[in-house]
Design a protein that fits this description.
CATH topology of the largest domain: Rossmann fold
Helix content: 40-55%
Shape: globular
Largest sheet: 10 strands, mixed
Number of helices: 19
Strand content: 15-25%
Radius of gyration: 24 Å
Structural class: alpha/beta
Distance between the termini: 28 Å
CATH architecture of the largest domain: 3-Layer(aba) Sandwich
CATH class of the largest domain: Alpha Beta
CATH superfamily of the largest domain: Glycogen Phosphorylase B
Strand order of the largest sheet: 5-6-4-1-7-8-9-12-11-10
Length: about 500
């Protein structure tokens, strides 16, 4: 499905029903720029001048839903986090977007530092994130964080209810930041159709039992009419968790939960990417020249290039892949001075101790490998602890011989699909963790268990030795899968299901 087809289908189905999207991340961010006058200006009494710019964050969710919101004129409720957000919004936090051609409303919710610390960095990312990922990081359950999480969910719910007014509405909630919001909205507006996409895994019932507020979280999520996960396995885990925790009837034939006279469908809707964003980066360019320029900029010479690109998160398996690369250099010394590993680790959640410690661990690993194996002419591992633009990442995707995705646990992982979409030359090899949602659909990868260092090292070695003809066979199959299941297909099927539920209630 294309963006145009998605818009046409959803708008036709919505009719006069209002669409309200709820997400922690906003689709447009305003940035404040203050220009201080020079010395001469100060002498003549000039004042500093202020201007505002805007940007659209890199997000598959934004890519998929922004065209729909533009066409249907709904409301996007989000945390206003930009330095220029308050100054560009009205008293209620509303601003018309896109800024250059307004067609829908962004309703910003303001959070204090205390609220953000407790709700976002605390309960959401220090408790729910590690609880839902089998990455062996211990969740931190703090009563203060829980209170802030409840309060922020309440404020977002009140904002949604205010935006709905007296209209019929579909409320599309995003992710683990708002586990309580569906029940809050439903209690005030039982006629509204509420659906939620949980972008991360759902743990097994035994793991979830340790959460002190498990009953409240499950009750909040069962306020949804439709609760969606990436894969069926996570749906099964959720149903089992409810079955073992709450008084409810599980309808396994229709994948639904009946509780308190309300039915919640629990279904898989695997998310994807917009392949056109990565194809367009490569279109109209001299491929060979572009790759040569990228390799020269990276300083890799004629060496094979293995790469990984991730947020610096402990679920992504970055230490494990560096260990595997080191083990490969031990077992197959012929690769020394003939291969370079480039790891891009975008900073994230640095205010959480576990993330800061991970950054130090990765830097120490890189230094050890480079000290152990490096020569005057060769640096085995390049570590870039910084954000890269999509254009920069796309160029590296095209220049790489192997892309490694080694998540210890991942709802989907879109890096794997981006790499495939960028390889219009039909070359390159994807090494993919079997513990990603993406592994369910991408059959022609080199599969790997990131917890097994020797197996992992052998997988990288095998990938580097794969013949071009075999690379093309695999990549053609992978590209066929990614090009035929896009982020617009994800949004279209999910929103169509929400619209069907809304029609049932007419």
């Amino acid at each position: 499905m294309t963006a145009a087809a998605l818009v046409s289908d959803v708008v036709a189905r919505l009719g006069d029903t209002r669409l309200v999207v709820v997400a922690n991340r906003e689709p447009y961010v305003h940035v404040k720029h203050v220009r201080q006058p020079g010395l001469v200006g100060r002498m003549v009494g000039r004042k500093a001048t202020t201007r505002f710019s805007w940007m659209q964050p890199a997000s598959g969710l934004v890519t998929a839903l922004d065209p729909v919101m533009r066409a249907c004129g709904g409301t996007w409720v989000a945390h206003g986090s930009g330095s220029g957000d308050r100054a560009t919004s009205d008293a209620a936090g509303r601003v018309a977007v896109p800024p250059d051609e307004p067609s829908y409303t962004l309703r910003r919710v303001w959070l204090t530092d205390r609220e953000e610390e407790g709700y976002y960095y605390g309960l959401a990312n220090s408790a729910l994130w590690p609880l839902c990922h089998i990455a062996y990081a211990r969740p931190v359950f703090d009563e203060h964080d829980w209170r802030e999480y409840v309060e922020v969910n309440r404020r977002f719910a009140d904002t949604v209810i205010d935006e709905i007014g007296d209209k019929r509405a579909i409320v599309f909630v995003q992710d683990y930041h708002f586990a309580l919001l569906p029940r809050m909205v439903k209690a005030a507006r039982p006629d509204a159709v509420v659906c939620q996409f949980w972008h991360i895994p759902w743990p097994n019932a035994e793991a979830f039992r340790i959460c002190p507020w498990g009953d409240e979280i499950l009750d909040g999520l069962l306020g949804n009419d439709l609760l969606a996960f990436h894969i069926q396995y996570h749906c099964n885990n959720f149903l089992e968790t409810v079955d073992r925790t709450l008084e409810a009837r599980i309808d396994r034939e229709h994948f639904a939960v009946h509780r308190g006279g309300h039915r919640t469908y629990v279904k898989p809707f695997p998310i994807s990417i917009d392949p056109g964003l990565w194809n367009s980066v490569a279109s109209g360019r001299d491929w060979t020249r572009d790759v040569a320029a990228t390799r020269k900029r990276l300083g890799v010479g004629e060496a094979k290039l293995v790469m990984g690109v991730d947020r610096l998160d402990y679920t992504k398996g970055i230490p494990e892949r560096l260990q595997a690369f080191e083990r490969m250099l031990e077992r197959w010394p012929e690769w020394r001075e003939r291969v370079v590993f480039l790891q891009i680790g975008a900073p994230t959640r640095d205010r959480i101790d576990r993330y800061h410690a991970l950054g130090e661990e990765v830097k120490a690993q890189v230094d050890r490998i480079n000290t152990r194996f490096g020569t005057k002419a060769w640096t085995p591992v390049l570590f870039r602890h910084e954000h890269h633009s999509p254009e920069e990442v796309g160029a590296i995707y095209r220049a790489a011989d192997v892309c490694v995705v080694s998540s210890l646990h991942d709802g989907m992982n879109l890096v794997a699909k981006e790499f495939i979409a960028a390889r219009t030359d039909e070359l390159g090899v994807l090494v993919l963790s079997q513990f990603t949602g993406a592994a369910r659909a991408l059959a022609d990868v080199v599969p790997v268990n990131p917890f097994a260092p020797d197996e992992f090292a052998a997988a990288i070695d095998d990938s580097l030795r794969l013949a071009p003809d075999e690379q093309r066979r695999r990549m053609r199959n992978l590209r066929a899968e990614v090009l035929s299941h896009t982020v617009y297909d994800w949004a279209g099927t999910l929103l169509s299901e929400a619209c069907r539920l809304a029609d049932v209630r007419r």
